[in-house]
Amino acid sequence: VQLAESGGGVVEPGGSLTLSCVTSGFTFSSTDMNWFRQAQGHQRETVAAIGSRNGNTWYKESLKGRFIITRDNAKNTVYLQMNDLKPEDSGIYYCNTKKYWGQGTQVTVSA
After folding, report:
1. How many CA atoms lie within 13 A of 68 on its CB side?
2. What's the CA gap between 55 and 44, in Å, rounded?
3. What are the pLDDT digits (tens) for 40-61?
């Protein structure tokens, strides 16, 4: 199983980024997927999740309306679109399913 995140970077407050997580080694279309993040000095937290069967989504309450999780089963890829980014959104963002994790991608929101 491999999960490979990309799309992180440095962005100014109010900007947007879209993260991608390309997966392999399992049946993506039947697997629920998650995005986590970990800010420096903080615990890792769940950001968003998307179901496999019906595409139902879940978001950390404070992120609703700014973050959007989607999936493309044909590409074995899950995305996280992040809008109106704030400095407190900075951290390493990880793709996850079950016990598997990607290496993470750094997001820095700074003026």
Report:
1. 8
2. 24
3. 999 999 999 999 988 899 999 9
